[in-house]
């Protein structure tokens, strides 16, 4: 009975913000304790405060999806990071620089109770240099009286201060409107359609990221920054791998290892998150000579959740012996099953082993990431699937896939209109079958189920 499928209102597909380009990124920066984390919770509409009073508490996630007036953007919270007592201004400025480089727009938060301090000025200098759109927030304006103090912030030279109480929500609607106003229409990445593909090399410290980067950079012939009229962030580098030019995201961050090692862990995780966010494909470097760690898994999960193509580089292969390799196989079976769709290369940045396999593997992952399945083909597949493997009957009813469409590539995202709710296990089954049929090698895929009641 295809009539059912034919009556589906396909215009409903557009009711969700599933833009092909990644949503713009807003970084929230400022001194410790000005209320950044409280404000982020407010912006993403989460009432339960996850604000910690202990400074320097590390969190896994530093960026969150937000939607306001139907527009989607990503908020990067730099509030979990607290500098040491010494060299505070410099560290705040550096942290801000990092967040700003990864952002399309910046929300700069000042504590109206305390007023402007030297540390604030350090951030202001970074903001001016960055030329990114900035929105000045005078926080902790809990009532009318404090608004006069907020006006004093004009002298920072960042334009009109927006009085807000992150705690009570006062002024936060106006602030969200103002944020939408300064966000670029299209995120900057989308401008360089056809430019070099964006690759991030990520991984925990000491796995060999900078060694790999150096190897790749040394191999490169002369690569002109301006090859296709694209601008390159000062933190990025163009390298050539197997005759293809790629843009390596945040190479400055990889090279600046010493500071990272002595700094806060949050610092590294913010940087990793920013790089993943900006990349199309991520090379997650893992030290094959050491047991897989929690941190490795976290970074892999992060790449998957961010919807980026993934290539796993098992580095330091030269340090593995037969026994270690056998054990690694078991670890992969036990801990990495959920990344079975990802490609991997057993390599050594030191000896150059299998470095030549990176290029083809990157291309394969990108191809999987950008796969588009025509609607007709997709529904013919669903038709066969529903016939051969129907959903189990639930409460006398049998949920069915009525119609499906791929709403987006990079990563492949499918919307399935169904009659009734589907079991999670059935959705996983559908995902497995989709992969068997169409590949998507190296890419996560997303299924969005829309039951029609
Ligand atoms: P961060 O270090 O910049 O992320 O700051 P937090 O969000 O952790 O906030 C620091 C402290 O300021 C916490 O005790 C918050 O409850 C408090 N705070 C945050 N926003 C406001 C506000 O708008 N008004 C008042 N009165 N306190 C706030
Ligand atoms: P990063 O912190 O991830 O950038 O790691 P580095 O590139 O600085 O590497 C950390 C250490 O591992 C350095 O001493 C490197 O020389 C060493 N190293 C990196 N790759 C390899 C490799 O493939 N084999 C061996 N034996 N050592 C490596």
UniProtKB/TrEMBL annotation:
Q: Which UniProt keywords apply?
A: GTP-binding, Nucleotide-binding, Potassium, Repeat, Ribosome biogenesis, tRNA processing
* Record-linked CDD domains: EngA1, EngA2
Concerning InterPro entries, the annotation shows: AAA+_ATPase (IPR003593), G_ENGA (IPR031166), GTP-bd (IPR006073), GTPase_Der (IPR016484), KH_dom-like (IPR032859), KH_dom-like_a/b (IPR015946), P-loop_NTPase (IPR027417), Small_GTP-bd (IPR005225)
Give the binding site residues for GTP 2.
Answer: 203-210, 250-254, 315-318
Would the keyword Nucleotide-binding be found if you checked this record's keyword annotation?
Answer: yes
**Alphabetical list of Gene3D superfamilies matching this protein:** 3.30.300.20, P-loop containing nucleotide triphosphate hydrolases
What residues does GTP 1 bind to? 30-37, 77-81, 139-142
Question: What PROSITE patterns does UniProt report for this protein, alphabetically?
Answer: G_ENGA
Q: Which Pfam families match?
A: KH_dom-like (PF14714), MMR_HSR1 (PF01926)
User: A biological process (GO) annotation for this entry?
Assistant: tRNA processing
- List the NCBIfam families: GTPase_EngA, PRK03003.1, small_GTP
Q: What does this protein do?
A: GTPase that plays an essential role in the late steps of ribosome biogenesis.
Which family is this sequence assigned to? Belongs to the TRAFAC class TrmE-Era-EngA-EngB-Septin-like GTPase superfamily. EngA (Der) GTPase family.
> Can you name this protein?
GTPase Der
Source organism of this protein record: Microlunatus endophyticus
Tell me the classification of the organism that encodes this protein: Bacteria, Bacillati, Actinomycetota, Actinomycetes, Propionibacteriales
Query: Gene encoding it?
Result: der
């Amino acid at each position: 009975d295809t009539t059912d499928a034919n009556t589906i209102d396909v215009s409903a597909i557009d009711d969700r913000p599933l833009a092909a380009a990644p949503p713009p990124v807003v970084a929230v920066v400022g001194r410790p304790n000005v209320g950044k984390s409280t404000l982020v919770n407010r912006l993403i509409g989460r009432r339960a405060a996850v604000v910690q009073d202990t400074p320097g508490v590390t969190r896994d996630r530093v960026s969150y999806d937000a939607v306001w007036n139907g527009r989607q953007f990503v908020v990067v919270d730099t509030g979990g990071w607290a500098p040491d007592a010494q060299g505070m201004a410099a560290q705040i400025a550096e942290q801000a620089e990092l967040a700003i480089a990864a952002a399309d727009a910046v929300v700069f938060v000042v504590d109206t109770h305390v007023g402007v301090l030297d540390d604030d000025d350090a951030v202001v200098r970074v903001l001016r240099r960055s030329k990114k759109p900035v929105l000045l927030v005078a926080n902790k304006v809990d009532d009318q009286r404090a608004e006069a103090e907020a006006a004093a912030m004009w002298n920072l030279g960042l334009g009109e201060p927006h009085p807000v109480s992150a705690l009570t929500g006062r002024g936060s609607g106006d602030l969200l409107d103002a944020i939408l106003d300064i966000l670029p229409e299209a995120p900057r990445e989308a401008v360089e359609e056809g430019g070099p593909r964006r690759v991030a090399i990520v991984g925990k410290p000491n796995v060999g990221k900078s060694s790999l980067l150096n190897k790749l950079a040394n191999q490169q012939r002369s690569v002109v920054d301006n090859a296709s009229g694209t601008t390159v962030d000062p933190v990025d580098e163009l390298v050539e791998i197997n005759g293809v030019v790629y843009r390596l995201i945040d190479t400055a961050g990889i090279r600046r290892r010493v500071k990272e090692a002595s700094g806060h862990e949050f610092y590294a995780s913010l940087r990793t998150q920013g790089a993943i966010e900006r990349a199309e494909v991520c090379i997650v470097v893992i030290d094959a000579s050491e047991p897989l760690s929690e941190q490795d898994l976290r970074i892999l999960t992060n790449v998957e959740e961010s919807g980026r193509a993934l290539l796993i580089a098992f580095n330091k292969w030269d340090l593995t012996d037969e026994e270690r390799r056998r054990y690694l196989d078991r670890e992969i079976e036990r801990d990495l099953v959920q990344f079975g769709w990802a490609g991997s290369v057993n390599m050594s940045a030191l000896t150059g082993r299998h470095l030549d396999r990176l290029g083809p593997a990157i291309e394969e992952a990108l191809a999987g990431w950008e796969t588009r399945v025509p609607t007709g083909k997709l529904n013919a597949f669903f038709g066969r699937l529903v016939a051969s493997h129907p959903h189990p009957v639930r409460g006398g009813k049998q949920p069915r896939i009525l119609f499906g469409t791929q709403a987006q590539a990079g990563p492949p995202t499918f919307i399935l209109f169904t009659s009734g709710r589907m079991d999670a296990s059935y959705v996983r089954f559908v995902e497995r079958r989709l992969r068997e049929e169409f590949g998507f090698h190296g890419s996560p895929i997303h299924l969005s189920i829309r039951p029609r009641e």
